[in-house]
UniProtKB/TrEMBL annotation:
Pfam families associated with the record: MaoC_dehydratas, PTA_PTB
A single MF term (Gene Ontology): acyltransferase activity
Lineage summary: Bacteria, Pseudomonadati, Pseudomonadota, Betaproteobacteria, Rhodocyclales
Protein name: Bifunctional enoyl-CoA hydratase/phosphate acetyltransferase
Cytoplasm listed as a keyword: no
Record keywords, A-Z: Acyltransferase, Transferase
Domain of life: Bacteria
Xref: CDD domains: R_hydratase
Residue ranges constituting the Phosphate acetyl/butaryl transferase domain according to the UniProt record: 245-456
Amino acid sequence: MEHAVQQFIENRTFDEIQVGDIAQLVRTLKPEDIHLFAVMSGDVNPTHVDPEFARSSQFREVVGHSMWGSTLISTVLGTEFPGPGTVYVSQGLNFWRPITIGDTLTITVTCREKHDHNHHIIFDCLAVNQDGLKVIDGNAEVLAPTEKIKRARVNLPAVTISDRELRYRHLLSISTGLAPIPIAVAHPCDSESLRGPVQAAQAGLVDPILVGPEAKIRAVAEEHNIDIKGFRIVDVAHSHASAETAVGLCRDGVAEALMKGSLHTDELMGAVVSREGGLRTARRISHVFLADVPTYPHPLLITDAAINIEPTLEVKVDIIQNAIDLAHVLGLPEPKVAILSAVETVTPKIRSTIEAAALCKMADRGQIKGGLLDGPLAFDNAVSLVAAKTKGIRSVVAGNADILVVPDLESGNMVAKQLEYLASALMAGVVLGARVPIVLTSRADTAETRAASCAIVQLMAHKKREAMLG
């Protein structure tokens, strides 16, 4: 069994160790061990970190670094046998078989020789797996300590591995198996706004229709080595025409989604909400951020942080309903909706608390459908079960929210950007309530964010097709 964590770390001196004495350590290889070792060492051999490549290798699966096993030998020598004060002289090892995820290694270090003239000890080193098969063997020579050392054990900080690429692939997987949808991209005239739809196309999410000055689009593609071969380009003179033409393609059914390029949001949304030729519906248009936060157990929908500046109670009804409908598309049949404010109590001095209470009652009366609402809730009470319990809040929503409804655009934008830049959240964004879903990303957003947003609108477009057929 594994050694229990001790309060102190204590060595065994040269004189205390006898030939034949042993020490053992047991460890099980976990996926995060592989990732952490790769980050620490810089060894990103695809055998260890690329599941697709590993399946084609001789081992047929991801394997751990052989040197991870050897570090366990070093752990025994440096912390216990002999322990503090030990100086490595040499290490010779043979690696007999791979270490795969879930393998449990038993490390045995045995004193073979002692040399009194220089206080060197030679140890036999052996690692076997849970099946008793030899994984590593060899020997180590150390300069053993001659004085007793006992120190308080240093508690190391917890380490969290955030695999952004894995989370990104998981987000794209929400539309796995669906055919690409035609998407009109308005004015993709810089590297990121052009690379985003191209990357999404390569992932099988969309068939981009690039709307903008053709010469400029091709120049950007050539300068940044972006392959746009085979993509349809609709040549227009400037950004304003790009917005109107892209919206027209959506209105006429040529495209099933709209994507913002390098033009300003107001310019694109002006064409979207135009009473003549726009994409309006009876529902108020609103924006939702989908945030994959490493420290939260499931994705968060944040609304509205991009369209409605100071929404009224009536507007918030549509904002919430739009977000609930998106949650249904994403596979959440009854999403938990937290209506945020600065406090969790209703007070006339803070308008958002009054509106939160009204919205919850409207949901009780069927004016908002398909979700579980609670509010007002402060941010901590919405996402932390501990905070909610401390405040005495009894609610199925508190501490486990799926949707965060913010009081206004300013607060929502701050919440979303703080999660992205301080908590390494992977963000995607979509505008709802129009005749087609709209990928409305910031000009500072990466191609990765744009492609992730395309996965959402692809899924929405296919759900819409299903609804029209059935």
